[in-house]
Amino acid sequence: MIWVDGMEEDKKEIVLKNFIQKIIEDDISNGKNGGAVITRFPPEPNGYLHIGHAKSICLNFGIARQYGGRTNLRFDDTNPAKEENEYIDSIQEDVRWLGFDWGDKVCYASNYFDKMYELAVRLIKMGKAYVDDLSADEIREYRGTLTEPGKESPYRNRSVEENLDLFEKMKNGEFPDGSKTLRAKIDMASGNLNFRDPVMYRIVRASHPRQGNKWCIYPMYDWAHGLEDSIEGITHSICTLEFESHRPLYDWFLEQFEEMHHPQQIEFARLNLNYTVMSKRKLLKLVKENHVKGWDDPRMPTISGLRRRGYSPESIREFAAKIGVAKMDSIVDIALLEHCLREDLNQRALRRMVVLDPLKVIIDNYPEDQVEWLEGENNPEQENSGTRKIPFTRELYIEREDFMIDPPKKYFRLSPGKEIRLKHAYYITCVSYKTDENGNVTEVHCTYDPASKGGWTEDGRKVKGTSHWVSAKENLKVEVRLYDRLFTKENPDEDGDFLSCLNPDSFKVLENCLGEVSLKEAKAKNGEYYQFLRQGYFSLDYDSTADKLIFNRSVSLKDSWSK
Ligand code: ATP
Ligand code: MG
Q1: pLDDT (tens digit, 9 = 90+) per residue, 13-46?
Q2: Which of the residues 82, 210, 270, 400 is marked catalytic?
Q3: Which of 158, 183, 280, 307 is labelled catalytic?
């Protein structure tokens, strides 16, 4: 487990150090890097961040904070064809919202393009890089496999002078896209395929969000990433496991330039979650093909989607702490993420009453025009959370499912002759009901016990059911949006076609819900979290207007996460 801000003091004591913390503590005690810890979070701005990125963010920023270091936010903007400023903005918003700070400047890989070019020229001069005319397909073909060595390119032995000339011409735009590459000259028979003359530059004419048309050659990840880390003085370059076999190449490139700082790459297992997809390519497809309403659709595993759904940054940080950091790939149950949200919101959400499917109740013995302003606590988990006023009147609404004419055994809600408690109000007993021609109940008549104000009686008689309710006279019409998993399969990719198991019932709108009047303030206090009694945790959706409040159900109350 890793310590992150927000974790309770007493939990810190028992937190076990993960393997990355151990490496860092060793480095500090050996005086490596002068004891400094500088990490980075290096997203490619080709989509919105998702919950997997949140794991990496909490890890990188959390660890630097723990050891008094710092973390760079660096855009790995080396592939202009897929990158956009919209993504750059959203990524900064998401990292900040998660509670992390990268100091006063954002880093961009593209700021180092000149330096990278200069180093590539040096590598050519050392005879360790060459311009190749093979096409991408041919390069793949020549590469060999894990069991067969690769074949050397016929262009591999060009002279240094020729390579310098061709590389400069590549940079100057004298060759068409894809016609040439710059490759490192290492070992086509290496057991590590990454060493088989990896491509360092390719020719792509694409306008870059920050560099415009200055460049038509762009560096490849393996070449660029270590240099970016080195230039920024990163001490520990933490990345996901699939880069493990790239580490020797990361090291090889840096070893060629003696004067350059050499960060240590450390790999950890990426986060996988069931019932969702996480690759940006797939998330982009969901957005582009309108399977969801955008990157911030509350069903998306994106940070912006989770935020809109009503997730708190604290709950996501706690989730990251709970899943921990390991070297083994695994799949985390999405129920754990939901569990973390419930635990957090239970402590902070304001309790409110909202009836999703209203059924009218008339209290026959209650004065016709009377309005009593009763009190309800905002949050029983928080002593100082205060109270709010709830109007009680003769006509009320309860949840339709809280009344049955002919109930089965063990049904403890309202039915003819039965008594229940109305939360924060009175005990009521059903005396009669009316139905329409189809047998649907249209209204329920009750009597109330005036001596049970506040929801308890002096004789101490017990009722098993407690219902939430709203006044029929003093209430607020609200829209409620309910969400379910976006996919019906635990592994949506099982058949290679994740779109085939989209859940057709993942989104439901309830337009005629009634809430207590205190919810009027929700708009002004945007960003508050609510628990609608017995219905779950909710937050106000951005689509709300002053006249129409819309609430998203963040998560239901029932916790299916079991240890
Ligand atoms: P995707 O495959 O979803 O497009 P990516 O790895 O291409 O993700 P980047 O923008 O390159 O996305 O990722 C930025 C950082 O976030 C990298 O350091 C990467 O290792 C990390 N990261 C991405 N996905 C996950 C994940 N599922 N779990 C943990 N870390 C992740
Ligand atoms: Mg990537």
Answers
A1: 445 789 999 999 999 999 999 999 999 999 999 9
A2: 270
A3: 280
